[in-house]
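# nightly structure sweep
# worker-07 picked up a monomer target from the shared queue
# config: single-sequence mode, recycle default, output format = structure tokens
# input follows
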Amino acid sequence: MKTIGICIPTIEGGVIAHQEIGREAARRGIAYPQIVTHTPVYGDLEQALKSGDNQSLVKLITDSINRTAKAGAEFAIISANTPHIVFDEIVAQSDIPVLSILDVAANHCKKQGFKSVGVLGTTWTVKNGLYNGPLQKRGMTAVYASDTDQAIIMDAILHELINGIFLEKTTSDLVQIAKELATRCDGVILGCTELPLVLTEQNCGIEVVDTTRLLSHAALDFATKD
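# output follows
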């Protein structure tokens, strides 16, 4: 079984990814894989994103992945959606293969037979149209929240969710946004790895695509593949 590397831009999302690999291994009745993790300095990542400094973003994520490689990882995942803005550059500079959360999520949507897919995530993810290409390539279209709702989502992610803060009012607001989006699509991509902590199929009333856990399952698939 291959050793998995996890670049963890935010702790909350990274915990879900790491934990889900172990839980999925147990569900499959197979051995728990070896996992190497590294967490870049989040403040540096946020500054690079806010300033549009893609070169620094690539360096921070690539350095993190390559640190896991030096510790024995044979391939890696990035437990966050937004850094995939520069995914191609990351892959080009990484010492080991890197799985794409975008492809994993889009493939799942295709298998579910979706035609239109809502996308919830950071404003960086949304404004860069991160899921537009992967969905269009598979015959689907992306649907987004209004600018007003997007501002609420971004504030919740940056100031609460990534810090492990889950306020009832914020959760209620996010659920209402997801429900409105659900009226215009077949399923909703939780395109931020912290969103599954507050949004579920039960409270949203529509199928949600948990990108974090799907990526973990894909990592386990790759780790066990000959």
